[in-house]
Design brief:
Elements: E1 2-6, E2 11-14, H1 34-43, E3 52-56, E4 61-64, E5 68-76, E6 80-81, E7 84-85, E8 92-94, E9 99-101, E10 107-115, E11 145-146, H2 165-169, E12 172-177, H3 186-194, E13 197-202, E14 206-212, E15 223-224, E16 229-232, E17 237-241, E18 248-249, E19 253-257, H4 259-266, E20 273-278
Parallel strand pairs: 12-20
Antiparallel strand pairs: 1-4, 1-11, 2-3, 3-10, 4-9, 5-8, 5-10, 6-7, 6-9, 12-19, 13-14, 13-20, 14-17, 15-18, 16-17, 16-19
C-alpha cells in the first residue's frame, strides 16, 4: 500500500483515459500530459496505460508500505526520498517505510509518479482514472491508502533520460482549424495567429485565456467537443478544453489542439504565455 501523508494541491490517480463511452456523455479524463506518464511507465517496464499519480503544482507526501520501484517524470517539484534529492526520469528502488516528499517547484506544472506494475485502484468503465461522478473520489486525501503490487524484479537505470525541454519552455501551440473557424472574419483570424495570449483560470477541465477576441459568430447547436477544442464564448473569452471536459458544447469551435500541444499546455501555469501556430490539414 501507498499511504498518503499529505495530498498536495491536486493529486489524483490517472491512466490514459476512459475511451468508447462518449456516446453516454462520459469524458475521456486521463493524464493531462501523456508523454511524461508514458515515459515514467516505460522506465519501469510497465504497460503505458498503467495507472500513475498525477500531481499538480505541489507534490504529495507518501509512505511506501511495501518494497517496490518508482519513477518520476514531468515537472520538477523537488522530489526527495527519505529527505535526499531524487533523480527524475530514472528507476529508483524504495523499501518498506520509505517516505517520498516534494518541495519547491522548479519548472512545469504536473509531475507523474509511476510505480512498478501500476497503482491497483478500482477499474470503472475500463479505466482507473479519477473523475467526478464516475469514480468514488476525484483526488486523493490525507490518510488514503493506494494499493500496488510488490516488485520482485529490479530494474536499473544508470542515467537520466534526456529532458524534452521544449515541452516546458516553448510558447508555440500547434492548432488546426475548428469546424466554425470560418465563422471568424479575416481580421479575427489574423489576430488569433499574430497575438500572444496569457493563461488565466485553469484546471483539468479547461484553460481560459485572459485576452478577449471580439465575437461576431452566429450561435450553433450543441455539438461534439474534444480535449483540445478551443471555444469562443459570446463575451469573447477563449476557452481551451482539456482532459476532463464535457463531451458536447454550444460555443463555436474555432480551433483544435493536437496531442503535442495538449501536453505543452498541461505544463503551463497562470500568466504563462502562448502563441497559436496553424497546421495544415
Amino acid at each position: 500500500m501507498l499511504e498518503i501523508l499529505h495530498s498536495g494541491l491536486y493529486t489524483s490517480v490517472q491512466d490514459l483515459g476512459r475511451f468508447h463511452h462518449r456516446n453516454f456523455g462520459v469524458p475521456v479524463a486521463g493524464v493531462m500530459d501523456d508523454y511524461h506518464a508514458k515515459l515514467a511507465n516505460h522506465i519501469l517496464g510497465n504497460e503505458e496505460n498503467d495507472a500513475v499519480l498525477e500531481m499538480t503544482l505541489q507534490g504529495a507526501a507518501v509512505c511506501f508500505h511495501k518494497e517496490t520501484q518508482i519513477a518520476i517524470c514531468g515537472a520538477d517539484l523537488s522530489a526527495t526520498l527519505n529527505n535526499q534529492p531524487m533523480r527524475l526520469n530514472a528507476s529508483v528502488k524504495v523499501s518498506k517505510g520509505d517516505t517520498l516528499t516534494f518541495g519547491k517547484r522548479k519548472y512545469g506544472v504536473r509531475t507523474y509518479l509511476a510505480i512498478k506494475n501500476g497503482f491497483q485502484t478500482e477499474i470503472v468503465l475500463k479505466s482507473r482514472s479519477f473523475y467526478d461522478g464516475i469514480t468514488p473520489k476525484i483526488r486523493v486525501d490525507k490518510g488514503d491508502f493506494i494499493p500496488y503490487q510488490v516488485s520482485l524484479r529490479p530494474i536499473e537505470t544508470k542515467s537520466n533520460i534526456a529532458l524534452q525541454k521544449e515541452i516546458f519552455k516553448s510558447k508555440e501551440i500547434d492548432v488546426y482549424e475548428g469546424p466554425e473557424f470560418d465563422f471568424l472574419s479575416k481580421q479575427q483570424q489574423e489576430i488569433l495567429f499574430k497575438s500572444t495570449f496569457s493563461i488565466g483560470l485553469n484546471n483539468r477541465m479547461a484553460y481560459q485565456l485572459e485576452e478577449m477576441l471580439k465575437n461576431s459568430c452566429p450561435s450553433i447547436i450543441t455539438s461534439a467537443v474534444l480535449p483540445g477544442t478551443i471555444q469562443l464564448t459570446p463575451s469573447g473569452k477563449l476557452i481551451i478544453l482539456m482532459k476532463d471536459c464535457q463531451t458536447t458544447g454550444g460555443y463555436p469551435r474555432i480551433l483544435q489542439l493536437n496531442q503535442k500541444s495538449i501536453i505543452r499546455l498541461a505544463q503551463k501555469h497562470t500568466r504563462d504565455q502562448i502563441q497559436f501556430k496553424k497546421l495544415s490539414t
